């Protein structure tokens, strides 16, 4: 069997260890992919501002599709090379609709070059540790286009909140989730990890049958469905395990690297 011409992998919970680090085995496997001439793509919900440590750990190899497909980021140069943004008027309409129908939401936004959040938006681990700045007034969030709009609820479960958000504003944005918190991540309508990956692959003359993908959470499902070969890590969300036929070891056991070592001997 020929080695895939493209490798697409999620990061958190998939290729990264649970502490957010890149193991030496995974870094070596990524180097093997790029040395073979295949295209390495890290496909993540992370914004580019969270990518520097990963880029350094893997020797600035490959490309990254960030913010669930909204931004394509060149890891060699650490530059955004493609953007699919939610326009400001759409952000404002979505926030208005969700506030009117779901009490208790707090919002934040990822821009191409920054981040802003309301004062009652509880920051996640990476931003909390980095000491991201104080909250801004709600109106400031919707003043310009953004790569990703995030809505957080302190009491609801992620799956239930996602269903409500999709029903309310699914005609305006594409909503998904990727963590244990009730944190809904919204991209421009029709933008997913899969759409960005398919476009990137097409520009390289690569079809889905020539690609292998790895993931662990519901926001990975479109990408896993697109790729000709897909693997879930053993620690994946039940919804992913239910539909992805091939399984590899957990993220903390270098599951992605194990498969790549077999594919790129």
- Beta-strand level of the residues, as a percent range? 15-25%
SSE order, one letter for each helix or strand: EHHEHEEEHEEHHEHEEHEHEHEH
Q: Ranges with pLDDT <50 over ≥5 residues?
A: none
Tell me the number of strands: 13
Helical region count? 11
Shape: globular
How much is the radius of gyration in Å? 18 Å
Amino-to-carboxy terminus distance? 12 Å
**Average pLDDT for all residues:** 92
Give the spatial strand order of the biggest sheet. 5-4-3-2-1-11-12-13
Main sheet attributes: strand count, strand direction, barrel closure = 8 strands, mixed
**Which class of secondary structure composition applies to the elements?**
alpha/beta
Which percent bin holds the helix content?
Answer: 25-40%
Walk me through this protein's architecture.
There is one protein chain. By secondary structure, the chain is α/β, with parallel strands linked by helices. 34% of the residues lie in helices and 24% in strands. It contains 11 helices and 13 strands. The strands form 2 sheets. An 8-stranded mixed beta sheet has the order 5-4-3-2-1-11-12-13. Helix 2 runs parallel beside helix 11. The longest helix has 14 residues. The radius of gyration is 18 Å and the shape is globular. The mean pLDDT is 92.
